[in-house]
Design goal:
The chain has helices at 2-13, 25-35, 143-151, and strands spanning 44-50, 63-70, 77-87, 89-96, 105-110, 119-129, 155-161, 180-183, 185-188. It is of the alpha+beta class and 191 residues long. Strand 2 (63-70) and strand 3 (77-87) form a beta hairpin. The radius of gyration is 26 Å and the shape is globular.
Length: 191
C-alpha cells in the first residue's frame, strides 16, 4: 500500500505545468476580460416610426422617432418621442414584441389623453423611465429585463390615435390600435 502512495506522489511531482493550447486560449481570454473592472457605458437606442410598421400596416403620412439613452448605472432611461404629420394622439407606449407581433404594453411614454386631441408635430413627449414605470408583463421585474429586451430587438414604440368619433376608423388620426410604430434597436454607446 505504501508503494502505491509513493508511486502516485512521484507521478504528481513529475507533472509539468500545462500550457494553454489554441483551443483553450479563448477561454483564458474570456477569463481575463471578465476579471477587468466594469466600466459603465451609456447605451443608446432608437425607433423610427411609420404606419407601414403597424400590425396590420396603416396608410398614414405620420412619422416619428423615439430616442433613448440608458444612464451609466443602468437604472434610468431618458427618452424623447418626436412626431410629425399626426393628429389626435391619445397615448404612446413601449410594447414587448417582434416586428410582426402586436405585443403587450410595458411602459407609457405619453398619455393617455382625451380623444380628438388635434395635431402633434415636434416633441410629443420626453422623460425618464425607471423600474417603477414598468407595467404589464415587466411589472415588478428588474429594470435590466426591459433593457435586455430592447437590446435584443424585442420591443417597439407605438403611437395611438383616436378622433373621438364612434364607429369605424376613418383613417389617419383615428387608429386607436396604433397609427405609427417602430422597432427599438440598439445604437451603441454613441447616439
Amino acid at each position: 500500500m505504501v508503494g502505491i502512495v509513493l508511486t502516485a506522489a512521484a507521478a504528481v511531482a513529475s507533472c509539468e505545468p500545462t500550457v494553454p493550447t489554441e483551443q483553450s486560449s479563448p477561454t483564458a481570454l474570456v477569463a481575463t476580460q471578465s476579471a477587468a473592472p466594469d466600466v459603465p457605458v451609456p447605451l443608446n437606442f432608437v425607433a423610427h416610426l411609420i404606419g407601414a410598421s403597424e400590425v396590420p400596416a396603416r396608410e398614414s403620412p405620420a412619422v416619428g422617432e423615439a430616442k433613448f439613452q440608458l444612464s451609466p448605472d443602468g437604472t434610468q432611461l431618458e427618452y424623447r418621442l418626436i412626431s410629425s404629420n399626426i393628429h389626435n394622439v391619445i397615448v404612446s407606449h413601449i410594447h414587448l414584441g417582434a416586428a410582426d407581433v402586436a405585443g403587450p404594453v410595458t411602459v407609457f411614454l405619453f398619455g393617455p389623453v382625451a380623444a380628438g386631441g388635434g395635431r402633434s408635430d415636434g416633441v410629443l413627449a420626453h422623460g425618464t423611465i425607471t423600474a417603477a414605470n414598468l407595467i404589464g408583463p415587466l411589472a415588478g421585474h428588474p429594470f435590466s429585463d426591459l433593457i435586455a429586451a430592447m437590446s435584443a430587438g424585442g420591443t417597439y414604440v407605438n403611437v395611438h390615435t383616436n378622433d373621438g368619433v364612434d364607429g369605424i376608423n376613418t383613417g389617419p388620426g383615428d387608429f386607436p390600435g396604433g397609427e405609427i410604430r417602430g422597432q427599438i434597436r440598439l445604437l451603441g454607446p454613441t447616439p
